[in-house]
Design goal:
Length: 237
């Protein structure tokens, strides 16, 4: 496994290297003191299984760097390192694997590596009962939303395909889990595909705008916030 660490503080870089030697000695670790050097390396073909980025760097911030890296290597997970939790929500929008306050500790590093293994080998699978009564196994992170249609649910995948499921609302909610919000009656949306959640509607990443249930708008916003911070604010210290 190959890891890249980018931080303009040389003492922090040395501390991270030492932490890896103690905690995960089998990992190959490359260090960069500025984002431009890391960006050039990845652009020229250097591949990483995991990247640690300091958020507050002078030439290019960790957030800016993550967006550029995502364009070049979209499947490379990123962990943000920072002295402040002010960027937590923005980190979620970039789909950070983790967000950690400095200094990095051994339990925090182990949690990062656990999440990496989970992402690589154990994407959440869900079993959908199709309209024909056959069980289909799908990856939950490939489902954009599920919408009721008479006595069925249309499960819309990110590749554009639609699978008709013979399931009740309770059944499909329990199957999909808390990553899916009940935005309006009969419509469950994957939080990961929400670009923006406003007072009255949400906008998906494909540009589709969906009106929120007026009655449950506050509950929807609270559930969204709970999910966001459960993903990015869990830290192991």
């Amino acid at each position: 496994m190959r890891v890249g660490i980018c931080d303009d503080n040389t003492n922090d870089l040395k501390a991270m290297q030492a932490l890896f030697r103690r905690t995960a000695p089998d990992y190959n670790v490359d260090t960069y003191s500025d984002g431009g050097a890391l960006l050039r390396a990845v652009s020229e073909g250097t591949g990483y299984d995991l990247l640690f980025l300091d958020i507050l760097m002078p030439q290019i911030t960790g957030m800016e760097l993550a967006r550029e890296l995502h364009r070049i290597a979209p499947d490379t997970p990123v962990v943000f390192l920072t002295d402040s939790d002010a960027y937590a929500v923005e980190a979620f929008s970039i789909k950070a694997l983790h967000y950690i306050l400095k200094p990095m500790t051994e339990p925090a590093l182990k949690e990062c590596l656990r999440r990496l293994e989970e992402r690589q080998g154990a994407q959440k699978r869900v079993h959908i009962i199709s309209s024909s009564g056959v069980q289909q196994m799908l990856f939950a992170d490939e489902i954009q939303y599920a919408q009721s249609d008479a006595h069925y649910y249309d499960v819309h995948m990110k590749d554009g395909t639609v699978i008709k499921a013979r399931m009740t609302q309770t059944e499909i909610q329990n199957t999909l889990g808390d990553a899916f919000l009940l935005i309006s009656r009969g419509l469950l949306v994957n939080v990961e595909f929400i670009r923006q959640l406003g007072p009255k509607s949400c906008v998906l990443k494909d540009g589709r705008e969906i009106l929120l249930s007026r009655k449950n708008a506050d509950e929807i916003h609270a559930a969204y916030a709970d999910y966001v911070f459960s993903r990015i604010s869990r830290r192991a210290f």
